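Example record used in the benchmark description.
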Amino acid sequence: MDQPAATNDIQISGFRKHIDIIIPAFFGLIALIVFSVTFSADILNYDDQVFVTENQYVHGLSVGNLEWIFSLQSGAANGHYHPITYLVYALVYEIDGLNPLLFHLVNLLLHLLNIFLVYKLVLYLSRNCRKQAAVVALFFAIHPMHVEPVCWVSGLNGVLYTTFFLSAAISYIRYLDSRSFRFLLYVGLFFLLSLFSKSMAVTLPLVLLLFDWYRKRKFSVRLLIEKIPFFAVSVVFGLIAINSSKLLGTFISLAKYDYSIVDRFFMVSYSVGFYLLKAIIPFNLSVTIFNPVVKDGWLPMAYYIAPILLAILVIAVLTFKKHRHEISMGLLFFLLTISVAIQFVPIGNVLGAERYTYLPNIGVFFVIGYFFAFFTNKEKYPSGMIKPFYIIALSGLLVYNTLTSFNRSKIWKSTFDVYTEMIEKNPRRALMGYKGRGATYYKMGMFKEALADFNAAIQLRPDEVELYKHRGIIRTNLGDFQGAILDFNLYMMVDSVCKEAYYYRGLAYTGLSEYKIAISDFSRTIALDPENAAVYSNRGFAFIKDGQTENAMLDFRSSVELSPGSALSWFYLGQTKAALPQFSVDEVIADYEKAIALKLDTFFLYYNLGNMYGLKKDYEMTEKYLRMAVENKPDYIEAWNNMGIQYFYHQNLDQAEECFVNCLKINSKFDDARNNLGNVYLYQKKNDEACAEWQIAAENGNTPAKENIDKHCKQNTP
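Model output (structure tokens):
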């Protein structure tokens, strides 16, 4: 009987030995299930294009890319200096290109690592209170406000800087416990990595002082000297962050949105209260939290109530003498780390975003976890009515958070879902949603849907002229050239040097056959953007239509020189050469074949190339390309007719007959084909059928048919 008992003791001992790995690992498994939707999510057209898909500098680990990533220019490009984040993007791209799965997997794996780090931080900070550490880690793992940074590719900077921030914080606690200088060096290293991942890490020195206070470390000169390098680095990176925002133009004045200094005070109070409340009860969440609307000089009532509620909270904390130290620790951690996202000076037209709470929420969870540990400690809290209610409420909240996070993660699967939520949650402030969704529709070629969204955006903000330019571009693609020109004219009243507006207005005038005006607009575009091959190509097309073949030739030459990979430019170049006597058939064929080699797949190209080979009397190649033309466009009547002529010359009369019959099926009044069909019947010795076809063609005014009747059918005339 003794042996089994001994074995059981060993198993329990082994389990306990690894308990601090098992607990966060279990929570990580829950998070993996909750955020599993991200495995099938896309790379979005919501900042992801700025940071990843359209940012050539993260498309691989070339020397040039690395130089840009670590230069301050990278911060100026999009308002954020986070080279380590870009480096991770570049590494992921180097491994598997723009595969969404790998990008999302990196975010999720970092989140799982952060769950472990949160558990360890609270464990060290609380001196091995596993209950508190477990609650904090579990809330952190599945909180709905953490969906955004975990499930959004552009949220990488949030989870990445948090990884290094937590590592630095843990190292500092280890330093406080051991006074080993090497841990202080680790703090410095992780701090730099965190700052290079996201500038929100500048709050770490303040958090280190908070840890000193929490651990009741005696104030000393050494304590201050330790922090001087950290504060110096924070100031530098803070200035870099502000400069990046200014260069991008997101750092704006209060006057733009009519907010006074007093308004800003209430807005800051509201932001703090908003983030704090949603950390505890995450309801009515939204992708974007917009700045409030000032009506008759007043903010919404909630903004005036916020500072009162915050004052009540402060008073309540001060009255909790027994728990004041722990509550203060959690709330101060929250306030210090969220402070850089509060926007004392506004950046853009948003009040905040859920992703900013990813690290700060740990402070709120710290307080929740502390009370859980307190109420479940029989020595500290032997009995009482609060305990069961607290545990039930906590359990219900965890279930609610889990289900909410799972459902919210679905929103981040596609661009349309993200922008649609913006519109539905903020119908009166849905400008960003309509613009973003409309732009996404446009990129997908869904022009009618894009037009509907930009119409809605203009209804919301008819004074935002940029919208008219975008709507003009969409209207151009829809063939509403008059409407497009009206939109571009409205836009150009404000911006008369926009190359994009001139270019698309030129396309609209081309669509209206106003070629001289189109040429003028394309010429202005070229003056503003002389390296744009597409403009030369389109001006060349307008020159052709206007009869200026020589000028067209010059433009198409410029187009292929600037963009030798443009198949359409090679096609137009060949087409222009075909109209000029100084160019040989072989030169034209070479340009057309270059276009085909560059994957231009269009019936008109095959038709022209077939005709060029016909001039060379290379009937095999002629038939090949004319056949490709009708395969590409089955109702292309001219190609069927020319192919029939080629078969006729080869005495392939049955195939020639088939081609001409197809022509007449497409258009029974195409009398050239009917006359040719009569010629086929004549050679097939079907004189009556031949004369019948010629008779119909002649009645429609076809001269060759009349001549054929006179020559071959008179004997049949009564």
